[in-house]
UniProtKB/TrEMBL annotation:
<keyword id="KW-0547">Nucleotide-binding</keyword>
<dbReference type="GO" id="GO:0000226">
    <property type="term" value="P:microtubule cytoskeleton organization"/>
</dbReference>
<dbReference type="GO" id="GO:0015631">
    <property type="term" value="F:tubulin binding"/>
</dbReference>
<dbReference type="GO" id="GO:0005524">
    <property type="term" value="F:ATP binding"/>
</dbReference>
<dbReference type="GO" id="GO:0036064">
    <property type="term" value="C:ciliary basal body"/>
</dbReference>
<dbReference type="GO" id="GO:0070740">
    <property type="term" value="F:tubulin-glutamic acid ligase activity"/>
</dbReference>
<feature type="region of interest" description="Disordered">
    <location>
        <begin position="720"/>
        <end position="743"/>
    </location>
</feature>
<feature type="compositionally biased region" description="Polar residues">
    <location>
        <begin position="720"/>
        <end position="737"/>
    </location>
</feature>
<dbReference type="InterPro" id="IPR004344">
    <property type="entry name" value="TTL/TTLL_fam"/>
</dbReference>
<keyword id="KW-0067">ATP-binding</keyword>
<protein>
    <submittedName>
        <fullName>Tubulin tyrosine ligase like 11</fullName>
    </submittedName>
</protein>
<keyword id="KW-0436">Ligase</keyword>
<dbReference type="Pfam" id="PF03133">
    <property type="entry name" value="TTL"/>
</dbReference>
Length: 751
């Protein structure tokens, strides 16, 4: 009997098929081709005669027939004696391959498994795993030092998993740019039995883990990257404030969880005027404001003021940019200390929008007892700012191994403590979920513009996902308030400690480890490119389910790893799970879809004056009262004002935020007697009706935010579910009956 063998090169490694395996020889003469093969291992055993191989197909490898390539490869040989079970050999050193790995030696198998050709060879159930050590393969199996100094495994593993005998190859992760998240990432890769490439890899990896931004590694054309293009820019304080303000204009009630903010220097006059007016009305008014530099983080450059005249003069054009925000004077206190919540949120996909929230988070405590702001204590950073990076320098900072004491605690320990005091934490948790979904809905439109500019349709590119860090404050009345969203939340699992006077060392931080490792591990599980269940699920249309019924997405089972020993996922899907309650908020996304349609073939992020005119004309928004000359004036006014606001802005054209402003203006002109939200819905319906469904090119332009998604699913999600149909009846409905505010049924969310 011949066993069948198929050699093929796929992705970064060799694939195996048939009844098994590659027989890779060391340079001893190997004859190959279809038909009988003489395989000679470096052990000197003629495997053809002992095993009876037959090559049924030989595919091209680097221009050479596989048979020739065999001569260049290291030896790892099949011994196929029991038909029920096949032995998988770790490739010891693949000459000509550029891999470097420090992964689990037992998972050192970077090739995709090709389904077996001959199932009849595997007709009895698997019998567990068997590890073989092959002696005498000399230098080859001992392995040459690979480029990163790691040695490949000497262990040859036999796998008899099931009747088919196949277990999947490990997912490959490039961790070369992981920075401070590296330690946690390594632990997760090991736990998942995946394969790490700490120095990167010339061949593509399945996942690229970046510490800072999408561009940490340039020119990634496939796989997954843990950052979206534009997320860093989008979540800078000014941009986030703008996006939140747009939503506040449309939905003031729904977005009242974000403190009133002004952008400096652009809105200094409005800020001063409003405060003066308030003080005139109420002479006892003593509102405090917090000033945050635009590019700042970790509390850098933040200070409190009580009057616009207290603003510090700033030098340099960039330094002038800041957000000044209403200060929350009555936060919830624990042990008399102010604290904030760091919540980890996974944006798994933009299109369709998929959001997961980590059940566990961190709470960061101030180190000086809180007092309401007064002129006396405004400069007490340890009292007012919860940043770990600041408070760690206070003599009162407590590093604790316990999750429920110290200056950094788990969120669950705080919530349970509140529950013990009679607080309805389900209520708090559902408010937090709502805050996360609404904030994501506010930032997604511009992210889509960044995405299509960076990875235009038709250009090869990776699929993106991202873990965000939401900073949330609870008020004394238990209302969650959004402080900011971090595009690169720290995933460090150690903290600095002074081990001797003046000598600092990083020591493990159990609380960080407890929370962050689970978040990374489960993000990887959800994104697992080799697990079919983990690819983005097509979004269900709103209204497809009866009122109050949950969308039946079992987040527990999503992305379940083949390793049943892993705990259930700590990341819970909240969107599209609660899409029915929140979809009506996605109006700016519909405006963005129009914007992207008119961006033109150049993959930029700004509309030129001609494109803006085309938009107006195509949507038939001009008339005798609003001529094309007025259109030009509108364009010039809006773009000029915005470019003046950004002192060194060299970018010409109309960005998304300016387009949204223009759209609001046009909606206001056209539908004077409606409230803004209804004006916008009406104008959207009108434009969408004029434009019809996007052409295939436009479709790709506006919907290419998830490369893993089948086209049909994308098309399904183009039009957001609120009155997007172009029929006049639907338009009327949309105009006359806006969606109700967030349904109270969200209150059932459990922690
Ligand atoms: P950074 O990116 O520099 O950390 P944040 O916006 O997170 O900036 O602000 C730093 C800290 O200041 C927060 O952790 C919080 O303790 C406090 N803080 C920020 N905004 C407010 C606010 N509006 N009201 C009360 N405290 C705030």
């Amino acid at each position: 009997m011949y066993h069948q063998l198929c050699l093929t090169r796929s992705g970064g490694g060799w694939a195996e098929g048939g009844s098994v395996v590659c027989c890779l020889t060391t340079g001893r003469k190997a004859r190959n081709g279809t038909g009988n093969v003489k395989f000679v291992s470096s052990l000197g055993v003629n495997l053809t005669s002992c095993c009876g191989f037959r090559v049924i197909s030989v595919m091209k490898f680097n221009g050479l027939k596989a048979g020739l390539a065999l001569n260049q490869l290291a030896s790892a040989v099949l011994a196929l004696s029991a038909p029920a079970c096949f032995y998988r050999f770790v490739r010891a050193a693949a000459v000509g391959d550029d891999e470097n790995s420090s992964g689990n030696p037992n998972s050192n198998f970077p090739w995709p498994v090709v389904p077996p050709y001959t199932m009849k060879n595997f007709n009895s159930p698997g019998s567990g795993q068997q590890a073989l050590k092959i002696k005498g393969l000399g230098r080859i199996l001992q392995g040459e030092s690979e480029s990163n100094g790691n040695y490949p495994s000497k262990t040859i593993q036999a796998s008899c998993k099931d009747g088919f005998g196949f277990s999947r190859r490990p997912v490959t992760v490039d961790s070369s740019k992981a920075k401070t998240s590296l330690k946690a990432l390594k632990l997760c890769i090991k736990r998942l039995k995946w394969k790490e490439f700490p120095l990167g890899r010339r061949a593509p990896c399945d996942i690229y883990w970046h510490g800072v931004s999408f561009h940490d590694n340039e020119n990634i054309v496939s796989g997954l990257v843990n950052k979206f293009p534009g997320m860093v820019e989008m979540l800078r304080k000014i941009n986030l404030s703008r996006a939140m303000r747009t939503m506040q204009e449309l939905f003031p009630e729904e977005y009242n969880f974000y403190p009133r903010s002004w952008i400096l220097p652009e809105e200094y006059r409005q800020f001063s005027a409003q405060i003066r007016l308030l003080k005139e009305k109420d002479t006892t008014m003593n509102t405090t404001f917090i000033v945050k530099p635009d590019g700042g983080s970790q509390g850098d450059g933040i200070y409190l003021i009580r009057d616009p005249s207290d603003l510090k003069p700033m030098v340099g054009s960039q330094a002038k940019q800041a957000v000044v925000q209403e200060y929350i004077p009555k936060p919830l206190l624990i042990d008399k200390l102010k604290f904030d919540i760091r919540l980890y949120v996974l944006i798994k996909s933009l299109e369709p929008l998929e959001i997961y929230i980590a059940k566990e988070g961190l709470t960061r405590f101030c180190t000086e007892p809180y007092e309401e702001p007064s002129q006396k204590n405004l400069s007490h950073v340890f009292m007012h700012l919860t940043n770990y990076s600041l408070n760690v320098h206070s003599g009162n900072f407590v590093h604790s191994d316990s999750q429920s004491t110290g200056s950094k605690r788990t969120l669950s320990s705080v919530l349970y403590r509140l529950a013990a005091k009679g607080v309805d934490i389900k209520w708090v948790w559902s408010d937090i979920i709502a805050l996360v979904i609404k904030t994501s809905i506010a930032v997604v439109p511009e992210l889509k513009v960044y995405y299509q500019a960076d990875i235009p349709p038709g250009k090869p590119g990776p699929t993106c996902f991202q873990i965000l860090g939401f900073d949330i404050l609870l008020t004394k009345n238990l209302k969650p308030v959004l402080l900011e969203v971090n595009a690169s939340p720290s995933m460090r699992i150690e903290h600095e400690q002074e081990v001797a006077p003046g000598v600092f060392e990083y020591v493990p931080s159990p609380v960080d480890k407890e929370v962050k490792v689970d978040v990374i591990r489960d993000t990887l599980r959800l994104m697992d490119p080799l697990n079919k269940d983990s690819t983005p699920s097509p979004q269900l249309k709103a209204g497809e389910f009866e009122h109050g019924e949950e969308i039946p997405v079992d987040s527990e089972s999503q992305g379940r790893s083949p390793d049943e020993n892993l705990p259930s996922l700590c990341l819970k899907q909240v969107y599209p799970k609660y899409s029915k309650e929140f979809n009506y908020l996605r109006l700016v996304e519909r405006i963005t879809a129009l914007f992207i349609r008119f961006l033109g073939v150049k993959d930029n992020m700004r509309l030129g004056p001609t494109a803006f005119r085309t938009f107006i004309r195509t949507c038939k928004l001009n008339n005798s009262n609003f001529t094309m000359a007025s259109v030009d004036v509108l364009y010039i006014n809006i773009t000029r004002r915005r470019s003046c606001a950004i002192p060194d802005s060299r970018e010409a054209g109309m960005g998304l935020q300016a387009f949204v402003e223009a759209f609001f203006y046009l909606a206001g002109r056209r539908f004077k007697f409606l409230v803004l939200k209804e004006q916008v819905v009406s104008l959207l319906s009108l434009c969408e009706a004029q434009l019809g469904p996007p052409s295939s090119v436009e479709d790709r332009r506006s919907l290419s935010c998830s490369r893993a998604l089948p086209r049909a699913a994308r098309t399904q999600t183009l039009c957001l579910p609120d009155a997007q149909s172009s029929s006049p009846a639907t338009q009327r409905r949309a105009t006359s009956s806006p969606r109700p505010p967030v349904s109270p049924c969200l209150r059932f969310i459990t922690f």
